[in-house]
Design brief:
The complex is a heterodimer of chains A (about 300) and B (about 425). By secondary structure, chain A is α/β, with parallel strands linked by helices. Chain A contains nine helices and 15 strands. With about 425 residues, chain B is α/β, with parallel strands linked by helices. The chains are: A alpha/beta (about 300), B alpha/beta (about 425).
């Protein structure tokens, strides 16, 4: 269930983004700066969300009219164990503690499609959040923690669940378009598991930022997936990237460690609630991301 | 004399069908205005053959707003349709009120037959807790299988009757038997709860077929198959049958099937039965309903700013004015931000309550200047319109015809980009 508290979009007064150095935070700040929306980013160097002092520190930063975007999380590369899980919950517990005696106008939480397990053929926002491992369960638990706290504080909460995000500024190197592009440029090689049969949805970073901005402008409340609705196989993705390369790229297939699973999304909710939003076609997004990565390398 | 209490869709159709079989009928409803209208042959519902049925049999039917007129009836049918709320749950309050109104006027020892859509357990509770024992009323529940748009045909020519009784081994009362005999179809007598559940069972089997059809027709679109080539083969399979619901559609609508799904979900919850399939059917229905929305986004909205969208049909199916859970209304809501023109032969909307919607007085008027046409209800009259005239009236050429109401070949020849359920267009993804 989605509710737009501002049916006609309007710029938020000020946006505070937690997780300053992350892929999404940096691109969102860039996107919000274009129309001149006042934005501040808060990173772990200035406010360490793992520390109890972060509650008071945040209180001194956040104003009642602010929109708060939470992108801070320890991603699976930083650990997949129970300690990382607990650290991630601690970070959000401190944000929830902030809401006990401080207000802001709107909270947007950047969650993940990992909240859904991989047994469902077609995922929508109503798919049970049984979680893909501890990382998925962590996001599901954080969503509930924030829902409870924001409910008590009467602050509208928007949960945005992206699929895998790709783009030139990616700080991660997980299996998918970003890694494929990097290795295609650097090593002239792309490595697939099996024959790359799995179909997945990939969202372009600029689309993610545009969508988050839309949620901020509408002061949206509820949970929504930010996905394209067009899943492609890793093999097809690799082939598209190979076609972008000016040089020969070797496609290497390693034995797969896990069974083939696919993930497709039903985008009906987004189409209804954000009818003017359209995703960048994959070939356009990949070409932009590839050019960006090439110029960086 | 046979009485009917409650003159909604069900009561109007059944009371006139009973008069058509030569019985004298008293038809009661508490609304004097409705009764006056019915007496003049003015009906609040649209059904093929209803006006003719009234004209031929009006001398044998008395429409009355006085419950006391039922006191002359040896057999009384309670025929008020039970409405559902937004969550598709039955609201039996008006039915209970009707029963309270008529009970004092029922003759001692009469036969009372409940036709209204009630949940399992309702009829037995009615006997045990509601009706005074001193009346010695013999209570039965009879399954109605009214289909909107075919109500007269179904009331005059039923496939069979299913009757719930306190004691199925006892013979039915004589007038009730005579009434059944006049329709010349099999009568199956069973206990109350079985009959109440039988109605739900029929609807759930329909839903299972509809859901299976919709699932497979979407798969057809993805793998390069055409569901219309497969369905005839299924109809020849004795286990499926020639009348199975094998036409792909936009989910379940109308309210009755949804009500029964909710009832079974609720009963399964109360009694601890596995009923996960119900949730799957509901999910499948919601997903199927949004097929047109997904098409419009992919074919029109992603390519054109501020297009004009044309909708033919608002009713949830042809030959009815009902828009209950209609996919057309859901689509209009989802496209609130865009300009829309709509036409329906029977169903109307208060256009002011829907942003950027205008109603047209003819299908072609609706098309004028449109970028895309969507046929949301497959009214037969739409098939008579020349595709070339559609194309001439429109600015764009996208035609989304989920049910295949128009002739695909003629539409393509006229230059329309034709899309229907269950068939892949262009490159398939394998």
């Amino acid at each position: 269930m989605i509710k737009h508290h501002r049916p006609s979009p309007a710029h938020p007064k000020r946006v505070v983004i937690l997780g300053a150095s992350g892929f999404v935070a940096r691109d969102l700040a860039r996107h919000l700066a274009e129309p001149g929306i006042e934005t501040i980013t808060v990173g772990s160097a200035s406010v360490d969300l793992l520390s109890p002092e972060s509650v008071a520190q945040l209180r001194s930063v956040i104003r009642a009219e602010d929109s708060l975007v939470i992108t801070s999380a320890l991603t699976p590369e930083k650990g997949k164990d129970e300690r990382t899980f607990m650290k991630n919950l601690t970070m959000v517990a401190h944000i929830c503690a902030l809401f006990e005696n401080a207000r802001c106008a709107h909270v947007v939480y950047l969650s993940s499609d990992a909240v859904y397990d991989d047994s469902t053929a077609l995922v929508s926002e109503t798919t049970p959040r049984t979680g893909l491992g501890l990382y998925g369960l962590m996001h599901a638990a954080r969503e509930e923690m924030l829902r409870f706290a924001s409910n008590n504080a009467k602050i509208p909460l928007c949960v945005v669940r992206p699929c895998a995000i790709y783009g030139a500024g990616d700080t991660h190197n997980s299996y998918g378009p970003n890694r494929f592009m990097r290795t295609a440029i650097r090593d002239r090689k792309i490595t697939l598991f099996g024959n790359g049969e799995e179909r997945r949805d990939h969202i372009y970073i600029k689309d993610t930022s545009r969508f988050l901005a839309l949620c901020l402008e509408h002061q949206t409340e509820g949970a929504v997936n930010i996905v394209t609705g067009n899943a492609v196989s890793f093999y097809e993705l690799a082939q598209r990237i190979i076609r972008l390369c000016p040089h020969q790229v070797q496609l290497e297939c390693l034995p797969r460690a896990t069974p083939i699973t696919h993930r497709h999304f039903d985008t009906s909710l987004r189409l209804k609630e954000f009818p003017s939003f359209h995703c960048t076609p994959l070939e356009v997004g990949l070409a932009e991301a590839f050019n960006g990565l090439q110029s960086r390398s | 004399m046979i009485g009917f209490a409650g003159l909604s869709h069900l009561g109007i159709s059944y009371s006139l069908a009973t008069a058509a079989k030569g019985f004298e009928v008293v038809a009661f409803h508490s609304s004097a205005g409705l009764v006056a209208d019915l007496g003049r042959g003015k009906f609040p519902i649209e059904e093929p053959g209803l006006a003719e049925l009234f004209t031929a049999n009006q001398k044998r039917i008395l429409f009355t707003a006085s419950a006391a007129d039922l006191s002359a009836c040896e057999l009384v049918f309670v025929s008020l349709d039970v409405k559902t709320d937004d969550a598709n749950r039955s609201d039996t309050t008006p039915l209970c009120e009707l029963l309270r109104q008529i009970t004092p006027h029922l003759p001692k020892g009469c036969t009372l037959v409940l036709l209204s859509q009630v949940n399992p357990g309702f009829t037995r509770k009615l006997c045990e807790n509601f009706l005074p024992q001193s009346l010695a009323v013999k209570v039965f529940y009879q399954v109605e299988t009214l289909i909107f748009g075919r109500a007269v045909e179904r009331a005059l020519h039923p496939e069979r009757y299913m009757v719930g009784a306190a004691d199925p081994d006892q013979p039915l009362p004589e007038l009730f038997r005579r009434w059944h005999a006049s329709f010349g179809c099999p009568v199956l007598v069973m206990r109350y709860e079985s009959a109440e559940l039988a109605k739900i069972a029929i609807n759930l089997f329909l839903v299972s077929t509809v859901s299976t059809t919709n699932t497979l027709s979407e798969l057809c679109e993805k793998i390069g198959a055409d569901w219309s080539e497969i369905a005839p083969a299924l109809r020849l399979d004795k286990r499926i049958g020639p009348h199975a619901y094998l036409s792909p559609g936009l989910g379940i609508a109308g309210g009755n099937l949804e009500r029964d799904l909710m009832t079974v979900k609720q009963l399964a919850g109360e009694h601890g039965c596995e009923a996960g399939v119900i949730e799957a059917w509901l999910l499948n229905s919601r997903y199927s309903r949004d097929w047109v929305l997904r098409k419009i986004h992919a074919l029109v909205l992603a390519n054109k700013e501020d297009p004009t969208l044309v909708l033919w049909g608002l009713a949830y199916k042809p030959n009815t004015h009902s828009t209950k859970n209609s996919p057309a209304l859901a689509l209009i809501d989802a496209l609130a931000a865009f300009t829309k023109m709509a036409y329906d032969p029977q169903a109307t909307l208060d256009a002011k309550t829907y942003p950027r919607l205008r109603l047209a007085s003819s299908p072609l008027e609706a098309c004028r200047g449109g970028d895309a046409l969507v046929v949301m209800t497959p009214w037969p009259e739409f098939a008579k319109i020349e595709p070339a005239e559609i194309q001439e009236s429109m600015k764009g050429n996208v035609l989304i015809d989920p049910f295949g109401a128009l002739n695909e070949t003629a539409c393509v020849e006229a230059g329309l980009a034709y899309h229907r359920l269950g068939v892949s267009i262009g490159e398939c993804v394998l």
